[in-house]
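so my prof wants the structure for this chain in the tokens format not the other one, which i didnt know existed until like an hour ago. anyway here's the sequence
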Amino acid sequence: MPLRQALALAEERGLDLVEVAPNANPPVCRLLDYGKYMYELQKKAREARKAQKQVEVKEIRLRPRIGEHDLEFKIRDARRFLTKGYKVRFRVRFRGREIQHLDVARNLLSTISSTLEDVGVIEAHPKLEGNTMTMIMAPKK
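here's what i got, hopefully its the right format
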């Protein structure tokens, strides 16, 4: 259908002529209410955002020389977070010369991961970033 005829038809019906596939030969156009079409697209996008599950990351801060009782509390909190579906980031902060004993922090994080392996899996293995060592655990599915 020629362009002038399509535009006349669209105006007669009170609709808009919208080009759907410009690269096709000949280009493909549709008659539709463009304002309503855009509203529907925005509505679908809003619904899609609502349906998305936002994953929140809880952080537990530790020190290399943490006491055993304090560590048990931290592990209990991490277990609670993992069972509720949150990811947990363990952050071991080093101060001063503690950074020379990275093996202590790795052992600490491996102890935590082995204790929590029934409720979570390691998503990001322990790695050193500046003066902190971090590990991320995600809940088991």
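also thought this was worth mentioning. Residues 3-51 form a domain with the Ubiquitin-like (UB roll) fold (CATH 3.10.20.80).
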